[in-house]
């Protein structure tokens, strides 16, 4: 039976989660337009951009994961009503975003020429793929600020400001895409210029919003490294970062398997992954809200609230993903047609989306459970589970099936699904153990 306390929590959860879900939804729809604008240039242009997508995800996940570590720490400090820790954590988030962004700028620019070779791409798209990646990563410091500071702003209970800024970024990107791709005829390179400008402006906007946040005090005292605060925040963020790195490195290896299957298959695979995003984004929208409220409950030392938030978030996401999975299966063909007119790409991608549609509820639960672990500050568990699932199941099985049994793109997606299901079940088992142990 739902208690009055549960009803209040549900209202708070929805209030916090809805702006982020809305942000993710509209951002993904606008990314659909972005991908479609490039896709209409042909499979070669799509493949040129898709070559570096996994690397972009890899480096973006580093800043995102560290940001989630600070989110968890800030949420817990707010629950404890510890203003000193809150202000220090916010200051450290800003410093960390700036330093990490500078380091990643050097790394991404240095490896750009090697990515097409590592991915086993056709020589014809090497130059375009390299230049696109170099341009996109020029404003990496501002992109790091956008990802990390948005997380800590959400931890303070303000999910509307990051929503507005991220929507502005995506709308700018579409307008600039039209200018650089079609009006100026820069093609795939034009898409890279548009993305760089949009994220650069987004980073500046998030810095302004961050400075105005009531929990932020930009003085030397709070910008100076505080060892205890930084250590505790990074103790949560680094395992989360390692989990993302494990996943992204796995995607890089797996993408090299797929890129070797030919440009059409690779384009279909890349577009299908992009198309699927719309149908699981409620999970990522709810993840930050779940982490924030669980972190608040940990700071308040309220065990009942901690598990009530977990129960509410999982119930909602499973229900939502049952609906979205059904829609994905039914509209798989039209979704692929949004991005390309190539009949071969559409045919392959439609099959792939219908294969994955049945597992959307479990994948959504997996995403939200990651948020629960982040809120609990126990990010080492998802890190080890990611290692087992992604490398022990997805990569190993895909390598064997493709190289020894002649498997193709469909068989790779079966391996991917097995990975996602196993991780969801292992995360659920871990939460049951944690709750029963009372720790």
Report on this structure.
The chain has one domain. It starts with a helix and ends with a helix. It has 18 helices and no strands. It has helices spanning 4-39, 43-50, 53-80, 83-111, 115-118, 126-136, 140-155, 160-183, 187-212, 220-223, 227-259, 263-300, 303-330, 332-337, 343-357, 360-376, 380-404, 409-437. The protein is globular. With 439 residues, it is mostly helical. α1 (4-39) packs parallel to α8.
Number of strands: 0
- Which class do the helix and strand fractions yield? mainly alpha
Radius of gyration, CA atoms, in whole angstroms: 21 Å
- Strand proportion: under 5%
Order of helices and strands: HHHHHHHHHHHHHHHHHH
Inertia-based shape: globular
Short description:
This protein has 439 residues and is mostly helical. The protein has helices at 4-39, 43-50, 53-80, 83-111, 115-118, 126-136, 140-155, 160-183, 187-212, 220-223, 227-259, 263-300, 303-330, 332-337, 343-357, 360-376, 380-404, 409-437.
């Amino acid at each position: 039976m739902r208690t009055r306390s549960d009803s209040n929590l549900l209202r708070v959860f929805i209030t916090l989660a809805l702006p982020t879900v809305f942000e993710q939804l509209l951002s993904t729809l606008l990314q659909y337009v972005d991908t479609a604008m490039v896709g209409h240039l042909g499979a070669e242009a799509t493949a040129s951009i898709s070559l570096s997508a996994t690397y972009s995800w890899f480096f973006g996940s580093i800043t995102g994961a560290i940001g989630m570590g600070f989110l968890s720490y800030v949420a817990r400090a707010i629950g404890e009503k510890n203003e000193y820790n809150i202000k220090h954590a916010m200051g450290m988030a800003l410093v960390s975003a700036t330093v990490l962004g500078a380091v990643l700028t050097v790394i991404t620019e240095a490896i750009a020429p090697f990515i097409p070779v590592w991915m086993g791409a056709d020589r014809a798209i090497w130059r375009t793929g390299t230049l696109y990646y170099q341009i996109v990563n020029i404003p990496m410091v501002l992109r790091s600020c956008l990802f990390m500071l948005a997380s800590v702003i959400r931890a303070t209970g303000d999910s509307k400001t990051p929503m507005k800024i991220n929507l502005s970024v995506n709308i700018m990107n579409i307008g600039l895409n039209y200018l650089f791709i079609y009006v100026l005829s820069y093609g795939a390179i034009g898409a890279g210029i548009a993305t760089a400008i949009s994220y650069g402006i987004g980073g500046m906007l998030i810095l302004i919003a961050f400075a105005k946040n009531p929990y932020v005090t930009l003085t030397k005292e709070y910008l100076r490294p505080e060892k205890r605060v930084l250590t505790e925040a990074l103790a949560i963020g680094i395992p989360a970062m390692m989990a993302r790195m494990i996943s992204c490195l796995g995607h890089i290896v797996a993408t090299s398997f797929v890129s070797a299957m030919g440009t059409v298959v690779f384009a279909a695979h890349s577009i299908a992954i992009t198309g699927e995003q719309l149908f699981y984004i409620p999970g990522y929208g709810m993840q930050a809200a779940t982490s924030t409220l669980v972190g608040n409950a940990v700071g308040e030392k309220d065990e009942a609230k901690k598990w009530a938030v977990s129960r509410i978030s999982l119930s909602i996401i499973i229900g939502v993903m049952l609906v979205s999975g059904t829609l994905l299966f039914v509209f798989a063909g039209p979704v692929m047609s949004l991005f390309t007119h190539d009949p071969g790409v559409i045919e392959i991608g439609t099959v792939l989306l219908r294969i994955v549609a049945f597992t959307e509820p479990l994948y959504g639960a997996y995403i939200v459970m990651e948020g629960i672990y982040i809120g609990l500050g126990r990010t080492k568990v998802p890190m080890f589970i990611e290692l087992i699932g992604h490398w022990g199941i997805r990569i190993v099985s895909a390598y064997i099936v493709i190289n020894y049994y002649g498997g193709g793109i469909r068989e790779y997606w079966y391996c991917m699904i097995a990975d996602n299901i196993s991780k969801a079940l292992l995360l659920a088992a871990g939460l049951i153990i944690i709750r029963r142990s009372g720790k």
